[in-house]
Design a protein that fits this description.
single chain, about 375 residues, 2 domains
Length: about 375
Amino acid sequence: MQSDTCEVKAPQKLTWPRVVFGLAAVVSMYFVLQLSGILTFSPQVAGVTNLGAVFIVGLIAALSSCTAMVTAVVAAVSSTQVSARAHGLFNLGRLLGFAGFGALIGLLGQVFRLSTFTNGLMVLVIALFMITLGIHLMRLLPRGAWYFKPPAGLTGAITSLSTSRHPLVPLMLGALTFFLPCGFTQSMQLYALSTGDPFQASVIMTVFALGTLPSFVGIGVITNSVKGIAKRRLNYAVGAIVVALGIANLQNGATLLGFSGFAQNKQAVAAATVILPDGSQRVEMEITSQGYSPHTIEVVEDIPVTWEIYGTEQLGCASTLVAPTFDISTNITPGFNQVRFTPTEPGTYVFSCSMGMVRGTMIVNPKLDS
């Protein structure tokens, strides 16, 4: 048995009013999410504190296309083991699976570090996955149009287990949902991998799973009570959120690949450049809960730069600083940090955290001939 939540019937053909309305919905949702801070969430993991942002992303994920994939498994469990105990075991297995597999990802991160380019490429793929699924939920694609779908073999293998009546099957199924393709889950898995710490990675994935828990606990009630036009409207709203978050991920991935088009040219005072006795230049920057301060830095080409960075206790994603153009990829710790590099080409470049979410701008001015 498969829940009808997974079935989104597309229209026969594409219409411009539908596209224009959909675009307006996505843009509106993007700005709402941007103003709320969701698009630049930067969870603090050190000390296992301030993980509320990860929990919120879990809540959003549970209302997205991720729900459609997990709901099929939940519905199948309901069809074979209709008991509160079975659903309890399923959700317990999900939490244990995310904690255990999360720890393995963190352990893998100790020996396998993704390059900034590879990281950016993976974020772009995740973004495309999210955008196409979101568009599908909004029913903007004409019937028969292709879009990213979960591999049939993987979802089929997991769902087939649900036909068993063994009491431990729900626990197993819950744990295996860790591997169901979902842009949000994969984003958090990527973040967990970047920590290189089994405990921190386990905490990240567990808190994320906790965020999805309220939705999956009540999924049976929702699928039974929401029907017809109400369900279509819910799918539409959720689809707009998923597309908006996918667009944000496109920006993040492009940033990690060195694309400077998303550099933040806000009206703000740039970091003052100080010329040191040895002829090099020094700039200062602080990392706060709001991001980089100042977020715009000006330097001069062909002069070595000493970049002094002061990190607060709540660094989150900003605990890693990457600037692809200058071949910079370094860890930032609370307190004083120092990065040295020499800019060789004038221009406007972007630097960011390891996920491309927290961004700043580096302006390299041409060297004046003396």
